[in-house]
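User: Can you fold this complex?
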Amino acid sequence: MTATLERFRCMACGHEFQEVVQEDEDKERTCPRCRSNSIRKLKKAAEPAE
Amino acid sequence: MGNFTVTIRKKARYVDPGLCNACAECAKVCPVVTPDEYQMGLSSRRAIYIPFPQAVPSSYVLDMEHCLGNNPVACGKCAEACEKKAISFDDRDQIVTREVGTVVVAIGAEVYDPTEMDDYGYTRFENVITSMEFERLICAGGPTEGHFVRPSDQRQPKRIGFVQCVGSRNPRMGRPWCSNICCMNTVKDTLLLADHYPDTRSVVFYQDIRAFGKSFEDMFQRSKEAGVRYVRGLPGEIHEDPRTHHLIVTVENTTSGKLERHELDMVVLSVGLQPPADLRKISSLLTLSKTSDGFFMEAHPKLRPVDAPTRGVYFAGMCESPKDIKDSVCQAGAAASRAGALLNAGKVTIEAITSRIDEAACTSCGVCVRVCPFGAIQWTKGTPAVVVEAMCAGCGSCAAQCKPGAITMRHFTDEQIVAQVRATLAQRPEEKVFVFACNWCSYAGADMAGISRMQYPASNRVVRTMCSARVSEEMVLEAFRCGAPVVLVSGCHYADCHYINANRQTVKRVQSMWAKLEKAGVRPERLQLEWISAAEGQKFAKVMRQLDELRRTVTPEEIERSRKAFKPKVRRAAAEAATAAPVPGTAT
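Assistant: Here's the predicted assembly.
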């Protein structure tokens, strides 16, 4: 099972945070700051070119 | 439901249980010696053996993996010794098919293997054993016939330590759940030791002792009165004295705040439980869902604790959650009763709210099949999908996802819901927070806020759907087209979803809608998502207060932009519905 580091933004308070997400994870996501469930998964930042 | 075809592989025993009288003559002559799984590998067995003393039928079985060979017969001593001629090397696995009405899933759980926890030295030190191995060593039917000895020198240990929560309550290891049974199992073990060997001294290292069941607290107190020492704190590391094989346990006693060093003869790791390896396979066979811990999810945690979300399937025992014998027996009895009730009902009443697929409008894309949590839609590539109404629970996930609009939910049609949206926002929409609430949790949460007389702004307008997954993109966009400043989609928490896991579709849909809104130049924050349970009236009130504040920040220009940003989608089915007769069973 692989895990990736994902970025999220809370659509209620604007707080941005990162979380490790397991491949087949089925987890309710909550903002660590305001406890809202309006959590938007952000696109991964582009890998820096070698 | 009530119509399962089960294919069973009946494994070859190589011994006819009808002839075998368990005389043990075969095992006496068998030359193969292999570790005995039942005794946790602490003793050995032969290739022909009885798996455990209470096995039913009480008949020998041949372990063909270890047998010297049957084709050609390389040994055959057991067959020669058997007077009843019960042994046949020609036995083969059989495939048996049965038609059944209900299925009880009772596949149990697995015990955590502490090999990976090197800090406790399970693989390095002989005298570090698991609670399962302890169980065999102290059992009269065990390898030492109940004489409790330590593995390194076969002497009776005088100082024994128990380490709790090994493979349980450890989020860092991805095992955050409590295994339920280990605390009381250790309390029982300490009492056994105190009873059998009054001169032993037991120490238990724990985080919390959970003695919550009937008579459990009494048992815990008896253990303390018997002289067992309970130290609050889990050891960081265990070392061994190579000369004596004694174990040195260093632990921070969190009650006293002091670092303690314990020299012990033996350490027992109280290992936790985990979902069985084949749970995923059974889960996909019966379209069952899992909790975040990986155990099976019941249909409702309070009201239907033995029912699976798939109708006609019931749970018994540890596969649903770790539990002790008493709870397993209770659940098994309840599962049998529930299964019996369904089988004796004769007739089954199906849900009034089910989906219906218009074959002419269906483009045979198969999306509905993928999103149906109940596996209630049958489809083969190139042909229109068909709903099995006896299996459909009416969440509406399929209808919300169907792009051509070929799916109609009886009593909750798109037209009905859109009409509610339009009517609600017909006047002064800029003063309103528009809420889609699921029938089971969020709507009941709003009710709870009301009956509890909680104060929150009166700006919200709630439209109910059976599941949050019923809320389609078009419904949300229609609310914005009608001038809603803020739209909330709310549903049950993940663990409470009344339609197995339909609300995961809600998350996907809202995620894609945020991107769509952003692309259209509409502030995505104007669409919000919340999980509100029936008991969370307070959360409902809080969310309403927050959304009303958000509403006040939305300018008339923003509302005007979102009114015009999304063109209404003319659906083929909707256009046809305007001219065709109404769908039978629906009220428009």
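The two ends of chain B are 31 Å apart (CA to CA). The longest helix of chain B spans residues 325-344.
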